[in-house]
Amino acid sequence: MSQIKIVTDSTAFIDKETLEKYGIEVVPLYVNFTDEMVVDGTIDNATFFEKIRKSQEIPFTSQPSPGDFVKVFERIVQEGNEIISIHISSGISGTVESANTAAKMVDEARISVFDSYSTSGGLAMLVIAAAQAVEEGKTREEIVAILNRLKSTLRVIFIPETLEYLKKGGRIGGAQALLGTLLQIKPVLCLQEGKIEPLDKVRTMKKALERIVNELPTTAEGLQVSVINAESQENLQKLVELIQERFPGIAINNYEISSVIATHTGPVVGLAFMQNV
Amino acid sequence: MTLNKKETVFLRGSDLRRMILEACNYFDIYKESINELNVFPVPDGDTGTNMSLTMNATAKELQKIESDSIGEVARIMAQSALMGARGNSGVILSQLFRGIARGLSGKDEVQLSEVGKAFQYGIVYAYNAVSKPVEGTILTVAREIARGSRQAVQTSLTFIDLLRIAIESGRNALERTPELLPVLKEAGVVDAGGLGLVVFLEGCLQSMLKCAAEEQGTIFTEDKVPTVLEIPDPAGKKAAIGTVMEKFNPDYPYCTELLMKGSGISSQKIRQCLDEWGDSLLVAGEGELVKVHIHTAHPGNVLEICLLQGSIHDIKIENMIDQYKETHWSRPSPDKEKTTTGKAQDEKNPQIKFSGGAAGVSRPSIGIVAVSSGEGLYSVFASLGVDKIVSGGQSMNPSVKEIIDAIMDIPAEKVIVLPNNSNIRLSAQQASELVEKEVMVVDTRSIPQGLAALLALDRAKTLNENFTEMCKRARQVKTGEVTYATRDALVNNVPVKKGHIIGICDDRLIVSGKTVNSTTLDLIRAILTGEEEVLTLFYGQDINDQQARELADLLGKEFPEIEVEIQYGGQPLYYYLIFIE
Description:
The complex is a heterodimer of chains A (277) and B (581). Chain A is built from 10 helices and 13 strands. Helix content of chain A is 39%, strand content 26%. Chain B has 4 domains: 2-243, Serine Threonine Protein Phosphatase 5, Tetratricopeptide repeat; 247-327, Alpha-Beta Plaits (2-Layer Sandwich), CATH 3.30.70; 346-476, Phosphotransferase system, mannose-type IIA component (Rossmann fold, 3-Layer(aba) Sandwich); 479-580. In chain B, 48% of the residues lie in helices and 19% in strands. In chain B, helix 2 (47-64) runs parallel beside helix 4 (87-104) and helix 7 runs antiparallel to helix 9.
């Protein structure tokens, strides 16, 4: 009997154990330094930022090629299975496009490519929800419907320590308006319609953290929360405390962001949440 | 003015115009003295200048018109004051004019009673202009003037008598302002706006007296006008202002006041009899009730003379020498050169345009107007998305018209105005009500509050949402200001000497010292609570980059847990503006 396999990309940065538990396949993106190409998800952030500091350059990133997807898709389809391929927002990466191209080449009828409008912890939560739905025996159509419902409540909000990385990476969207601000500010950004938009600008990290926690819904019912960070342990700790203050006892998933995302945000702390109601 | 047989006096448009024009000139003589009454000894060209500018805007328009209809002249007067209003006192004055114009509307000439009524309208408008009316200010003085004139109208007097009584009521109210407003008492001054209003009425009286003298073919002498203030010494010597608000001659030290009751009392006769007994003579009323006021060396004789014509009541005799000693204190005149330099600079560039304030937004849904001074601050505001900056601040309050022009210059139909100074809020409010755009004024009282509010700007949200969030943000910051004292004073128990450096936090004087660095450090030490994370120093035009860096280093060492940022503000008068969050 045909099974449903979940495919995602390296920006979800789901831990190995979870990947194996649900049989989730990962197609990696790439980080390109002048003299070296790093496959996303293969090095940790400490090593990655050390590399950036040493090389004195901000690398560029690239999406998986359609060929990368074809390899994975073909293998799964040949095993007689269907695919739901869930990816980083089309607003900030061309990954979905590569996946779509590959799906057409392999077998469009058996592959659903899903644009998460998110990434990192947000993407991870959708992927795991999909994998759980597979375990519950839901059909591909049912699972896509579930994903669409969750996606509409999914939010990713983050505070980069500086806008420099986003500026160099060119994926700044509406946050463009924040550039050139003479005052030092902490930009609070979010993914909106899959693009990076400014949510607020405050002057201190403390206020910025309070600001993002304020975006959480009023009730914890069906709420899934993830914290995300790169090189920002101290702020992460404060953020976790603030969330627990708001919803005592709530389970909080913790995701590092992958090298590809870190290339664009630099050191960052943030929050992803969705509500299944 | 025309006198008919029944001795009913009518006031026409030309009379009002002449009165306002002359009052405006008269006021200009005293405006610096009024400026000196600012409670905070900070360098600013405040109340006197603002009221003078407001009146001059009115005078300019009145000179252009020919109408002799008092309703029409009053309408122009109100309209032009409204557009030219600067500062809170100017706005309140413009509201008084508006109310008066409403009372006179549609009339070509009016009698005394109608003038009294018009003044009542003026008071209502003035009170409505202020969201939280504070007693002990120009409002109290205006109200008492209105009350005094209402009573005077009932005893049917001439316009001249009416003005005399109005001035007298105003002065009495003015003397009480320190009792009503502790901050005035502490600073040893009366309310500057209230004083301005009284001085304005004196100017009106002077005009009336001149007019009357011309009609009677007599010569007008200025000393007939009871002046509250001494004419300032042109050499810049201190003007004698104290809470003894009356000009007094040591030869006539007893201020004597009483009410006479009887029948057929002739005020003219009393005036004649009392004239040789002193000066500052005021006899108001006729017939059954007459009020007498005189400065004399022989109060007993004055009482005896009055007794010949009626019974005497409410007798008040005061030795003004005692009052003078108790309450008089000298204040050096403000550093005029400094103030005028600042003004001249501001006027050269009343509005600075920024085309690319918000990057990539061609026709923003919400436009922002901010009031600020100093090129560095202009850039900071522009970088945060301000569409139009109106030049102004503590040293120079922009006119309502300048704010209107800025609002109209922005393509957006919805505009938020950040006055960034408590003295500019009313002008901004006024401006917002006079334009057809949807305008909201966020009550930002300092540059840092304005910047904090601006950080909350989100053009994707509605005007109301932005307004609410901006108000909230503005209140969350602390503002420090470092400037110099223009006179000696004791404020919040902090003794201040002229020329000393003073540190102010959110409109409260906190420290005073001899050097900018030590005072700034003291101020910051005093206002930090340990919760703060970021401190931004905007250094003014009198501080250079190196000095600012040195201070920032000192701060960094003393407060390692706080992020210290320095920015060129370029603002006049203030060495540092400190934005603490």
